Amino acid sequence: MPENPPPLLYLVAGEASGDVLGARLIAALREFRPGLAIAGIGGARMAEQGVESLFPMRELALMGLLEVLPNLRSLARRMDQTVADITARRPAALVTIDSPGFALRLAKRVKPLGIPVIHYVAPQVWAWRQGRVKEMAHRLDRILALLPFEPPFFERAGIPVTFVGHPVLESGADRGDASRFRAAHGLRPEERVVLVMPGSRRTEIRRLLPIFGEALRLLSARVPGLRPVVPLAGPVEEAVRAAAAGWTPGPILVRDVAEKHDAYAAASVGLIKSGTSSLEVALAGVPMVVGYKVNPVTAAIVRRLIKVRYASIVNLLADAPVIPEYLQQDCRPDRLAAGLETLLANGPEAAAQREGFARVMSQLAAPGGGSPSEAAARAVLDTTGLA
User: Fold this and answer.
1) Are the C-beta atoms of 17 and 98 separated by less than 8 Å?
2) 44 and 235 in contact (C-beta within 8 Å)?
3) Predicted confidence (pLDDT) at residue 195 exceeds the cutoff of 80
4) Helix (H, G, I), strand (E, B), or coil: what is residue 69?
5) Is 13 helix (H, G, I), strand (E, B) or coil?
6) Region class of 261: left (phi > 0), else alpha (psi between -120 and 50), else beta
7) Residue 271 CB coordination number (10 Å)
8) What is the pLDDT of residues 324-340, one digit of tens each?
């Protein structure tokens, strides 16, 4: 008689950060349950764990109302394709990772199949569109939350939540080698590294890098010896090269994860878009300013709905403006340059940021020890009865 096939989990990631989370989750799942089969949608990191993506993950990496609208037809086709694949495979559970726009619609389509749906990374509906949490209660069997204040919010709507800790703590962002980075790129002793992180989406690159580049030009006129470094996230290298083509000096583009962490260690300051990247930079202890800007129509809609005081996760966790935020009309080259110049003096402003970073990181450990990915894997296996 043929052996029973191994249990199958279906994972769906929609962008570079989710791909990393998915890969770590798969590795942890297989530590607890060797032989577990995985299928779904992911990028290069999940491919390293043996996942053959149903279609290229980059097709889901869209953000902003006006960016999504032209792609609605292709997104609908990919949704139908994903639902058909899940229906055919009948996995033990569907695990959607971040990307709530696609993930929650997929959950609605899959729920009638009787397949448990687990969403990894709580949607930030506590920040805006809080009414959506009631809809989510009918679509999700469990949420794996990264932030300690999230479980009570979702549990009030009847959604089981497990706080698993934040995977930034297992990223290695605080274990880079500054000397190795400086030697690898021939940096002179007097040159100071400015870390520039505009995001992993092409729309973010197009909107933010010209602003960031002009801020660096203004800053370099006042503070000589600066060298920008841009870690690449996702398939955006060509877009970064095009946007940074006129920078003087030209940026160092970093592709490898270990080299990115070396760049963190070498950096004097960071010019960062709001998001998870600010947590990585905070873990590395790099003082930073945050800048972000979206399409004006998107911004006008979001502004009416927003329920929190800060855009940066670091500031949200600290409940204080640890990092200066320059958003929308304030995301201007002159203001960004002035904020960076203050931090480059390495005075009380930079010291206050580092103290704030330490307080924030202490909140993010996985309960009960172990890594956040291990905590997430245990929660998935417990929810699906595969533990």
Assistant:
1) yes
2) no
3) yes
4) helix
5) strand
6) alpha
7) 29
8) 999 888 999 999 999 99
Q: Which residues contact 118 (CB under 8 A, 6 or more apart)?
A: 93, 94, 95, 96, 140, 141, 142, 143, 144, 379, 380, 383, 384
Is the predicted pLDDT of residue 321 greater than 60, yes or no? Answer: yes
Task: Give the rounded distance of the alpha carbon of 204 from its chain centre.
Answer: 13
H/E run at residue 182: helix 178-184
- pLDDT tens figures, 33-82: 999 999 999 999 999 999 999 999 988 865 444 455 556 688 889 999 99
Strand partners of residue 267: 193
Of all residues in the chain, what percent carry a pLDDT higher than 70?
90
Task: Report whether 174 contacts 168 (CB < 8 A).
Answer: no
Of residues 257, 271, 264, the one with CA closest to residue 286: 264
- In the predicted structure, residue 383 carries a pLDDT above the cut 50: yes
Angle in degrees, 0-180, between the axes of helices 372-384 and 16-32, rounded to the nearest 10: 70
Residue 206 CB neighbours (<10 A): 15
Give the range among 74-83, 129-138, 239-248, 280-289 with minimum mean pLDDT.
129-138
* CA–CA distances in Å: residue 200 to residues 25, 63, 208, 274, 311: 21, 11, 11, 12, 17
pLDDT of 203 reads: 78
pLDDT higher than threshold 80 for residue 132: no
Strands, DSSP E only, in the chain?
8-13, 37-41, 93-97, 117-120, 142-145, 161-163, 192-197, 226-231, 252-254, 267-272, 288-292, 325-327
Residue percentage of the chain with pLDDT more than 90: 67
303 phi and psi, to 5 degrees? Answer: -60, -30
Cβ–Cβ under 8 Å, residues 312 and 290: yes
pTM beyond 0.85, yes or no: no
DSSP states along 242-307: HHTTT-SSPPEEE-SHHHHHHHHHHEEEEEE-SSHHHHHHHHTT--EEEEE---HHHHHHHHHH--
Yes or no: say if 197 and 234 are a contact pair by the CB < 8 Å rule.
no
Tokens of residue 282, six digits:
């905070």
Cα 70 versus chain centre, distance: 24
CB contact at 8 A, 269 and 284: no
Smallest CA-to-CA distance from 50 within 8, 87, 89 is with 8
